[in-house]
Amino acid sequence: MESRSVNDAELARDIAEEAGRLLLAIRAEGREDGKALGVRGDHEANALILARLAAARPGDAILSEEAGDDRVRCACPRVWIVDPLDGTREYSEGRDDWAVHVALAVDRVPLIGAVALPAQGVTFDSGQQFATIETPRRPRMVVSRTRPPEAALTVARALDAELIPMGSAGAKAMAVVDGRADIYLHAGGQYEWDNCAPAAVAIAAGLSATRLDGAALVYNCEDPMLPDLLICRAELRDVVLAILAGT
Ligand SMILES: Nc1ncnc2c1ncn2[C@@H]1O[C@H](COP(=O)(O)O)[C@@H](OP(=O)(O)O)[C@H]1O
Ligand SMILES: [Mg+2]
């Protein structure tokens, strides 16, 4: 029987923070820059996360952006879904909007997750307490800084929302969790590892996290592509979905 001395959310947080410290140390070394820095960071953070999960939860399956996928996981009820470095481009550019994602989907539901933002010195996990945040009169929407989707721009125009460009799905989702933004809308392509941990934390924080048609987010699918999502304050969900349905 494997050891469960820490619960799944604590384990996810510990591992995400440890990978984050490694990524900060690699960047501080200054041996690589640009693409090579991102490649090394992805590779070493992935190795650390896979080793830690295999030791702590040997009975569970793993889906990682940086590891092969034999799809044996599809028959497993508990699957860890990890992105060792989300926002690789931003990490390589010396910015602080990048993240480490460690999530656990149970029966395809994003139940547990941790999102570390190592360069911002903060980690969020689905087991923590979340502060109550007031909704401002003018909504703020985080969007990809390099490829903001047309659907997000349409919603922003309709709501007169302020647009905040930012890298990394995890960094954007956590901006909504901690009240720096109210809506994160993505379309056009993403994978389960990009949004599983962010969605798990967002749902635990009482936010709405769905597909752009309002459907539930389902994980551990045969094809790990999960191309669009909406994470927002629960009270904004219906109005955003109605705007999207009308486009
Ligand atoms: N159209 C698309 N197709 C595939 N992946 C996409 C995508 N748009 C964004 N992503 C992925 O989603 C994450 C956040 O992107 P963005 O900062 O543009 O919002 C990045 O993950 P990685 O950095 O792990 O590759 C990026 O590769
Ligand atoms: Mg990613």
Automatic annotation (TrEMBL):
Keyword Hydrolase: yes
SUPFAM superfamilies per UniProt: Carbohydrate phosphatase (SSF56655)
UniProt keyword annotation of Transcription regulation present: no
InterPro entries per the UniProt record, alphabetical: CysQ/Inositol_MonoPase, Inositol_monoP_metal-BS, Inositol_monophosphatase-like
Pfam families: Inositol_P
GO molecular function: 3'(2'),5'-bisphosphate nucleotidase activity
Keywords of the record: Hydrolase, Magnesium, Metal-binding
Protein name: 3'(2'),5-bisphosphonucleoside 3'(2')-phosphohydrolase
Record organism: Sphingomonas qilianensis
Upper classification of the organism: Bacteria, Pseudomonadati, Pseudomonadota, Alphaproteobacteria, Sphingomonadales
